[in-house]
Each structure stands twice: as C-alpha cells, then as structure tokens.
Amino acid sequence: MRKTLLGVLAGALLAMGVMAENIALREGHPDEYVVAQGDTLWDISGRFLEKPWLWPQIWQANPQIANPDLIYPGDRITLVFVGGEPRLMLNRGAGGTVKLSPEVRSTAMTDAIPTIPLESINAFLSRSRVVEDGELDAAAYVVAGASRHVISGAGDQMHARGALPEGDSNFGVFRDGGVIADPETKEVLGHLAREIGAARIVDTEGDISTFSVNRSREEIRSGDRLLPVVEQKITATFFPSAPDSEVSGVILAVENGVNQIGALDVVVINRGSREGLGDGNVLAISKRGELARDPVTGKSLQMPDSRAGLLMVFRTFEKLSFAIVLESTQPLAVLDKVGNP
Fold first, then answer.
1. Which of 80, 121, 225, 285 supports an S-S bond with 309, CB 3.0-4.6 Å?
2. Are residues 205 and 262 in the same domain?
C-alpha cells in the first residue's frame, strides 16, 4: 500500500501541530541515506519523495527553522514510523541520533549541503533582461574598439558614446534580442536585451567614454548598448517550490539561440508574475504530441503530450520569466509546453 510522508523531516512539524499536505513517498525509496559530499537537498529529497520540490515547502511551513538546509556530509537520514506516522531522523556523524525539532541551530553555512547546486547553476544563469520599449535605444552605444578594431573581447578597450548614469562604473554590454510575443495571443510580452559581455569605464571625455572589457560571451560590436549591471545571482536561501496557482505556458526562447534544449539551459517562458509565478517555482515540461496518420481511417491524429523534464524559474517579470532546466528526459525545443508539476 502506498505510504505518504506527512512532512519532510516531519518531527519538527508534528511537534508543533503543523498540518502539511500529504506527500507521496517515492517507490523503492531507501529506509536510510548517508549524505555525501556533492549532495544537494534536491537530490536527497528526490530519493525519498515523488515530488522533491515539496520538501522545501514543508520546511518553510515552520517559521522557527531559520536555516532548514543545514545538513552535512556524513549525516545519516533514516525514515521511521512512530505511531503509524512517518518521520525522518538525523544521525550526526559525531553525535548520535536526533529527531529534527523546531529549534534554532547556529552552525556554519559553509559546510552545509546546498538546496540546489548553486555554484553550477549560477555559472549558467542568463544575465539577459527584459527592458522597456525605447530603453536600449536611449542607452550609450559602442562606437568602436581601441585602435579602430571592429570587434572587441575580454582584455580589450572600446569606446562608447552617450550619457551614462552617474556613480556607475560597471556596465553590461547588451545586444537587441527583439520583441517577445505570445505565440497564441500575439500579445507583446517584453523586449529582450541579450547580455554579451561586461565592461568597466576607465575614462570619459565629452560624450565619449573608454571602457575596459572584463568579460565577453561573444564578440562585442559597434552598436551594442551599455546598461548598468544588475546582480542576478541565486543565493543559498533559494528554495524550489510548486506554484500557488495553475500555470500553463510554453518555452519562447533559449539562451544563445541553440536549437535543442537540455539540462542547465536557460529558457524564456511566456508566464510571469501576473500569472502568479515567483522565483523558485518548479514547472513540468511536456513535449507537444506529434501528428500521426491513422492507418485505418487515413485521417491525421494528434498524439498526446509527453512529460519531458522540469524547469525552475529564477527571475520573473510581469509577463514572462527566465528559468533553468533542472531535468530533461529527451531533447526539448521552443514551444514545448510548461505547467504545474
């Protein structure tokens, strides 16, 4: 008979009388697991739960646990049943078995395993952004590289013309990514500014500024635009979670314009804050069913959609969001569907 886990590390919740949504245990789940170097809470929760994104939701239901992800390599997590209720017990490597309870623990964050592989994911995060109409046209633009170079890259200097915000010295170099429209309603969802590098101002004379290029993802060309840097790094407090409302959308674009999409690729979806999406929301990805010919009637048949992966939203705008693909079981593509997991 299928057992349900009423709370991940549920001793804390049950001790407080907190009710949590029933969470199904994964078929073939282990009775215990020893945390290893390189593990994440996402990995471990996937060993015990059918829906790993529900683990942090249960943690967040307990406001007295300030840092729920303080689990360390060598810790032993054991699934037990007390009075018919499931609990997860924690055995510290040096201190015996303890029931996870609602108390504040002060422990160094540096050695704890992360919720998701932040270091890996941050390296893949898009620095592209959605801008207002006319914002790119009004920004300073690259005139040429030093020594009349047509293109510039990391380590080069370049010249730009136009007014720059006072007090800013670091800028992103952006290229117009075009208007993004909903494929069904044709509504304009935003204007994409695609980041291709970063530069630091070193001198200004009149409306001409000289920049040192710190980083480039591709060649910087005349006409590219300069916008102030906006920090988009995910922090250690980032928790994957299911959306609070029903969401149904599609993948509109993929970073760098590749044809096929896989794990750790950054994508743009046509749903944002107005549809209730927030940072950390997890969505399922489905491949659109293909048209097939019925061998008996000769008519075309629409095949059903098939589950193909998971993505996690990491930055939301009003009408669209940036997301990173966490899992993919087959190659994904633009216009594949996304929805509640």
1. 285
2. no
